[in-house]
Write a structure and sequence with these properties.
Blueprint (H helix, E strand, L loop, with lengths): L7 E5 L3 H13 L3 E5 L2 H11 L3 E5 L7 H9 L2 H4 L2 E6 L4 H9 L4 E4 L4 H15 L8 E3 L2 E4 L4 E4 L2 E3 L3 H12 L5 E2 H9 L8 H14 L8 E4 L3 E4 L1
Parallel strand pairs: 1-2, 1-3, 3-4, 4-5
Antiparallel strand pairs: 6-7, 7-8, 8-9, 10-12, 11-12
Helix pairs in contact: 2-3, 7-8, 7-9
């Protein structure tokens, strides 16, 4: 996996020492890192960067981690990310409150770095299976992100890197209708400015590759919106 494809973890914490420790260990484990010091910065980072996983400290200045979690999960980017609440509060009632506000996991301080990374990876498998190296299978199409191979009914297909990432997005969320803008963000990145028609060109190439050996086109065009698989 190239570094630009590595999963992005947003660390939301106001303690520099904690940010430094987490950043070092997560980078060593192969993740990309972004940081925010409070809920407001976290919301901005969500919309600008679209992280895969958010490590959210309970004790934040101004807005609590609970309220920040609620606000993050109210955004499309937040719903697409795994939010892990990090807290020294070990009472069951606190854990329940954290999960009730939309957190996907809850980890109690003090924790081992190995456990934290294992939790990040476990949540990543649920939210971004291709980023976690998980093989996907949908309707006879099989995508292996580690070996970068795609087969349909056991016949190898030849896809360019962009078409491979497009297919990964479709296969991670079968049935989801993707707008062209959402596909641009996901496949090309938020800091790259290209025309939405580019999406149509690459979807056309992907369809051609998928149907090279016969078989129905698995990608639907949703008029006025975008595309879906299945």
């Amino acid at each position: 996996m190239s570094h630009s494809d590595a999963p992005l973890v947003l660390i939301v914490d106001d303690e520099p020492a904690q940010i430094a420790l987490l950043s070092y260990n997560l980078k060593t484990a192969g993740f990309r890192i972004a940081t925010a010091r409070d809920g407001e910065e976290a919301l901005l980072a969500m919309s600008e960067l679209g992280p895969d996983v958010v490590l959210l400290d309970w004790m934040l200045p101004r807005v609590s981690g609970l309220e920040a979690c609620r606000q993050i999960k109210a955004t499309p980017e937040g719903r697409a990310a795994a939010v892990i609440m990090v807290s020294a509060r070990s009472e069951e009632s606190d854990r329940v409150r954290g999960l009730d506000t939309g957190a996907d996991d809850y980890i109690i301080k003090p924790y081992s770095v190995a456990e934290l990374i294992a939790r990040v990876r476990a949540n990543l498998r649920r939210f971004r299976p291709t980023a976690a190296g998980q093989v996907l299978e949908v309707g006879g199409i099989r995508l292996d992100p580690e070996s970068h191979r795609v087969t349909r009914d056991n016949v190898a297909l030849h896809l360019g890197p962009t078409e491979f990432r497009l297919l990964g997005a479709f296969m991670e969320r079968p049935g989801k209708v993707w707008t062209r803008e959402a596909l641009l963000d996901r496949v090309w990145g938020r800091d790259i400015y290209i025309d939405t028609r580019t999406v149509d060109v690459h979807v056309g190439r992907l369809r051609k590759a998928l149907c090279a050996g016969g078989g129905q086109d698995p990608i639907r065009t949703v008029r006025g919106t975008g595309y879906a698989m299945g």
